[in-house]
Specification:
The structure holds two protein chains of two kinds. Chain A is 23% helix and 41% strand. Chain A is of the alpha+beta class. Chain A folds into two domains: 2-206, PmbA/TldD superfamily (PmbA/TldD fold); 216-438, no CATH class. In chain A, the strands form two sheets. In chain A, strands 8, 9, 10, 11, 12, 13, 14, 15, 16, 17 and 18 form an eleven-stranded mixed beta sheet that branches. In chain A, strands 1, 2, 3, 4, 5, 6 and 7 form a seven-stranded mixed beta sheet that branches. Chain B has helices spanning 2-12, 69-86, 119-130, 203-208, 213-226, 241-253, 258-261, 331-337, 370-375, 426-429; strands spanning 18-34, 37-38, 42-55, 58-64, 103-107, 139-157, 162-180, 183-188, 198-199, 233-239, 291-293, 316-320, 323-324, 345-346, 355-356, 361-363, 379-391, 397-409, 412-418, 421-425, 433-436, 443-452, 457-465, 468-476. Chain B is built from ten helices and 24 strands. In chain B, helix 1 crosses helix 2. In chain B, strands 1, 2, 3, 4, 5, 6, 7, 8 and 9 form a nine-stranded mixed beta sheet that branches. Chain B is globular. The chains are: A alpha+beta, B alpha+beta. Chains A and B meet through strand 1, strand 2, strand 3, helix 2 and helix 3 of A and strand 2, strand 3, strand 4, helix 2 and helix 3 of B. Strand 2 (40-58) of chain A pairs parallel with strand 4 of chain B.
Chain lengths: 440, 480
């Protein structure tokens, strides 16, 4: 696939006329998607897809077009040539773009992360065997993901990642379940078995009579999978330069100095240690680390090339949405083994679900507890919880009510598969909160 | 092209119990003017096909963007292999399900083809309206956009079924944001989720009300900036169609999806508080509640002639006078559950397998005028335009927020309020439906962004509704 990308990139470069810059984006994957329900297969799908995006820049104007390719050289070259002709025909209609910015100096990068991805038959065999006698529902997505960037100035960027992500639940009854994920570059039977063993142990706890809580205030521990959802809300316009300058960011009170997070809270876009590509759509190479929140105070913003030009700052290789792709919350001091003891009496939240802002200006969030969440008393798990709605401010959760962050962190592959498999990831500790507000 | 594709497919279709090819080509153009600057036009063409094979009880899907005979043959081979791997190990014996063999053609109405305007003319149309947003120094951001899409689909079965469907979608939007003293308020003309989305052409801009929308959203954002916080307490809510669409979607649509009820979505989108034994007898809402699955309204966003398993689409009541009658489940789910459903097995693209989706899900108009609905409320809040949505994985405990609220006191409209929110439980909320607006309050809305499924899919849905009044709802505002 790499050779094919370079072949087409060279071809497109050869088409550039004087005064034109042509940029190309490439995304391809060969994926197996296997859905399971009640320890049987629901749907098995194999997808081969190649997508190419062309950007034509001329006289300060820019037009973008994306298309699917077949993988057949002659046909794809013909298609790209025709698409470029269409763009040339239409670029005169586009007004001059005052926020146009592209890398003037080529910066090549290459990253290959090969793996050993199991065949669909191995996955089906292993999962059905592990789920025998259980109510297992889950989804496996695996295969190579290829991304590339090229421009007619000669820049070439390439990344290949082989990985899989299997997320599954073991259900006790109705909405009581344990959710687990297993991802990586190679499937190892022992590692999968260990994850299944842990899930079965938690499943046994769900057999106890459930406890229904009254709305109110509780001590709480949010496990890393729950924190992924909380941090995900901050990523929704929180860290982008444009959203901060146009006052859309839910972190405006942090920017204005009216609120602050706890000094132990440091949040970074940690591209160097994530899985996402080290370059972005316009070809800017990302720095290894951008500190978004530094010791509780707002740090640098994620600046896409367009926003950088608009607001007169340097771009740091952010994507067009200015959303993190490798978010990293710094670790704390609490050992994970001591979490229940430190919580003493309160709720252990394994996962959260369907978060949204109930007041964006105040960074107030609402959402539901989900999957393995428990009532804890005397430092021991006593009962599974019936699902509860929370409504609380992130400035409290990561500020005044933050008692501790765990020493250990989880690297969570975000696993989204809208249109294509996502390589975004998040690394986060769990958090112990003095007070967490449940409302329904 | 479709003729040759069908011919090529039938030439390579393997000798199996059932084989079908679903082709999809989607071309779109997104034009945006932000703060009086036109953003680069974004054009896209997405083209490919998926082969479905059912053999010896197993089911396999394979998608390819290579539409040559070689590409189709290779995809058919992959689908056949997966069918073999899943035979006897699937949730159901797929070989026992009778798959439709449809024939026919469907096309969206298109009174005023968007291609009649040049791209420059469309940008100028947006820019002219967006220019009216900057009416005050506190307006900090504004944006107008127009998203047009043409989708061509074809469905072939190896034994002669053949359907072609062509859809024209148009989604306009206009928004303005005001900021002062640490408070940011945004007012949109159709909701941040592109709620005014329809099938058709440029004629939609007229019913959308593009003319005047720039100034209107800017004034709306400033009005919210000056407004007090929404009051808290138990009171009535009067939900207008651009919030009702979200209420229908989350707390009727998703819980009635048969694949959720069967457990397929429990690892991601969730389950449902609805169980199979409820159909035919369960009181979902008050006697005023009539809900239809209606793919036959031509202008609504998710109208079609056949679903992606080839089942012919028909209008059905899902809830009649408050009683639950029928789920949202297509041919496969109906066979698994042993219950009649609707033609709603849908896929968002050529590279995703079809699953149960809600398509057009509407509330039928009632008998009350808007004035009568308002007059019937002693204390309550009228709410417009969804901005926040959250619901549990059984689709029961929800909390929704709107851009704009207006207090109703003593049967009369009073002050505008900001950050109106309300929460409730689906299983009891619809029973508190106390008034349903007549046809004069009815609007056709929808969203291009309904997420569900593994692998994930975002699909178009339509929701038409009159204004509706609910009594005794927990209402609250934003942070102090």
């Amino acid at each position: 696939m790499k050779a094919y990308f370079h072949e087409l990139a060279d071809f497109v470069q050869s088409l550039a006329a004087e005064g034109e810059v042509i940029a190309s984006g490439f995304a391809a994957e060969s994926s197996d998607f296997i859905r399971f329900n009640r320890s049987a297969v629901r749907q098995a799908t194999s997808v081969r897809q190649l997508k190419w995006t062309l950007t034509l820049i001329r006289d300060g104007r820019r037009v973008d077009a994306a298309t699917t390719l077949s993988g057949q050289g002659a046909a794809d070259r013909g298609q790209l040539k025709a698409m470029l002709a269409d763009l040339r025909g239409g670029i005169g209609e586009a007004p001059v773009d005052p926020y146009l910015l592209y890398p003037a100096t080529p910066a090549d990068t290459e990253r290959e992360s090969p793996g050993e991805i199991p065949d669909a038959s191995e996955v089906i065999d292993a999962v059905l065997e592990a789920g025998r006698g259980l109510d297992l529902v889950g989804h496996y997505a695996g295969g190579p993901i290829h991304e590339g960037f090229a421009n007619s100035l000669g820049q070439r960027n390439w990344q290949r990642v082989d990985n899989f992500n299997f997320e599954w639940c073991l259900y006790h009854d109705r909405d009581k379940a344990v959710k687990t994920s297993y991802s990586g570059p190679r499937w190892e039977a022992d590692a999968f078995a260990a994850k299944m063993r842990f899930a079965r142990e938690q499943l046994a706890l769900l057999g106890r009579p459930a406890r229904t809580l009254d709305p109110g205030h509780y001590r709480a521990y949010l496990a890393p999978a729950a924190m992924e959802d909380v941090l995900g809300m901050l990523c929704w316009g929180g860290f982008g330069l444009k959203s901060q300058r146009t006052k859309h960011s839910p972190l405006m009170r942090l920017a204005d100095g009216k609120e602050r997070f706890d000094p132990r809270v440091t949040i970074a876009e940690n591209t160097a240690e994530g899985l996402a590509a080290g370059f972005q759509r316009e070809g800017f190479v990302r720095p290894g680390r951008v500190e978004l929140v530094r010791a509780g105070l707002l740090g640098d913003a994620l600046a896409s090339p367009r926003s950088a030009k608009e607001y007169g700052v340097e771009t740091n290789g952010a994507n067009g949405e200015e959303a993190p792709e490798a978010l990293d919350l710094a670790a704390g001091e609490l050992a994970r083994a001591d979490v229940l003891k430190a919580l003493d009496r309160g709720i252990y939240v394994g996962n959260l679900w369907y978060l949204n802002f109930s007041d964006r200006s105040a960074c107030r969030l609402t959402g539901m507890t989900r999957f393995a969440s428990f009532w804890v008393e005397g430092g021991e798990i006593r009962a599974p919880l019936d699902v509860m709605r929370f409504d609380d401010s992130a400035f409290r959760m990561l500020g005044s009510e933050l008692e501790a962050l765990t020493k250990e962190r989880d690297l969570i592959l975000q696993g989204g598969t809208y249109g294509a498999r996502n390589t975004a990831s998040m690394r986060t500790p769990g958090t112990l909160l003095r007070d967490f507000t449940l409302v329904l | 092209m479709l003729e040759s594709l069908g011919r090529d497919f039938r030439a390579i279709a393997p000798a199996v119990d059932f084989c079908a090819l679903r082709f999809m080509e989607e071309s779109s153009e997104l034009l945006t003017v932000r703060q009086d600057v036109a953003e680069p036009p974004r054009l896209s063409t997405d083209r490919g096909a998926m082969v479905t094979v059912i053999d010896k009880g197993g089911l396999g899907y394979a998608a390819t963007s290579d539409l040559s005979p070689t590409g189709l043959r290779e995809a058919a081979g992959r689908a056949r292999r997966l069918a073999g791997l899943t035979a006897g190990r699937s949730v159901v014996d797929f070989g026992a399900i009778s798959m439709p063999r449809p024939t026919g053609r469907y096309e969206s109405p298109l009174a005023n083809d968007p291609s009649r305007l040049t791209r420059r003319e469309k940008v100028e149309l947006l820019a002219g309206e967006a220019r009216n947003c900057k009416i005050d120094g506190r307006i900090v951001d504004w944006e107008a956009s127009l998203w047009t899409t043409r989708t061509r689909q074809a469905y072939f079965t190896a034994d002669g079924g053949e359907v072609e469907q062509v859809f024209h979608y148009l989604v306009p939007n206009m928004s303005a944001t005001a900021h002062a003293d640490g408070n940011t308020q945004t007012r949109t003309h159709a909701g941040r989720g592109n709620g005014y989305c329809r099938q058709g052409g440029l004629e939609i801009l007229e019913s959308f009300g593009l003319e005047g929308s720039g100034r209107s959203v800017a004034e709306g954002a400033l009005e919210l900036l000056a407004a007090p916080n929404c009051p808290s307490g138990k009171m009535d809510v009067l939900l207008m169609p651009d919030q009702m669409m979200l209420q229908i979607h989350e707390s009727i649509g998703h819980p009635l999806e048969l694949d959720r009820i069967l457990g397929d979505e429990r690892n991601f989108a969730g389950t449902s508080f609805v169980t199979l034994d409820m159909f035919g007898s369960y009181r979902y809402g008050s006697e005023l509640l009539d809900v239809t699955f209606d793919p036959t309204r031509p202008e609504e966003f998710a109208s079609y002639g056949w679903d992606d398993d080839g089942l012919a689409a028909q209008r059905h009541h899902l809830i009649r006078k408050g009683i639950l009658e029928r789920p949202l489940g297509g041919a496969v789910s109906q066979a698994r559950a042993g219950i009649a459903g609707v033609a709603n097995t849908r896929s968002c693209a050529w590279n995703r397998a079809p699953i149960d989706r809600m398509a057009n899900l509407n509330i039928e108009p009632g008998a009350s005028t808007l004035d009568e609905l308002i007059a019937g409320i002693d204390l309550g809040v009228m709410m417009r335009t969804n901005v926040s949505w959250s619901i549990d994985d059984s689709r029961n405990k929800f909390q929704f927020g709107c851009e704009w609220g207006r207090v109703i006191r003593g049967g009369k409209l009073a002050e505008v309020v900001r950050n109106p929110n309300y929460r409730g439980i689906s299983a009891t909320f619809w029973r508190s439906l106390a008034g349903v607006g007549d046809a004069s309050t009815f609007e056709v809305m929808g969203t291009p962004f309904c997420g569900k499924g593994e692998p994930n899919q975002v699909i178009r849905v339509g929701h038409a509704s009159p204004a509706c009044r609910f009594s005794g709802v927990e209402v609250f505002g934003g942070a102090k």
